[in-house]
Amino acid sequence: MQPDTSMNRSGTVCSIPVKNFIRRVREFHGATAPGVILGGYMVDLAYRHLPKGDILLDALSETRTCLPDAIQLLTPCTIGNGWLKVLDLGKFALCLYDKSSGGGIRVFVDTERLKPFPEIKAWFFKLKTKKEQYLEVLLDEIQTAGSQICGVMPVKLRPEIFEVRRRGPFRVCPICHESYPAQHGDCCLDCSGKTPYLI
Ligand code: ZN
Q: How far is CA 144 from each of CA 41, 45, 112, 132, 138, rounded to the nearest angstrom?
């Protein structure tokens, strides 16, 4: 693990002025979510540690919460295009990596560095209810802290995570007549009882 020695003091996140980024977060995420704002600084930090040059980038989020939206706002990686994977470990960490080698940079919140930022600490460890949390103070602290509170480490992804999985053939379900992956069996998962719908 290495400390963030390339502190971003420019008031930008991935070359976007922070104010504009916060506005985009509000539009995309539906709220000025502190986790997405902090995620912006984390993506920025990961970018700054990646080797320069043409690499095809993929992303991994270790949580379902907030970070996938920061990644989708600031990189070409989305859930839909398959370049962003979410592995729900419940950890507020992300990784940007070279999709051909699986080598990349992981950024996480370094809990040791939260001491000077009580509002971030209270939010991060859910020590206060949403009502008790001062959003403005929290957002100010996040902007002051930026990537100071983050750790960076080079990582190499396991092949089963980063290698592109070929999707097998599809067939028509004999019950609902919709298409589904043939590897799921004789009928689709919906019709075999795994439907999310009551009716
Ligand atoms: Zn079916």
A: 11, 15, 17, 21, 10
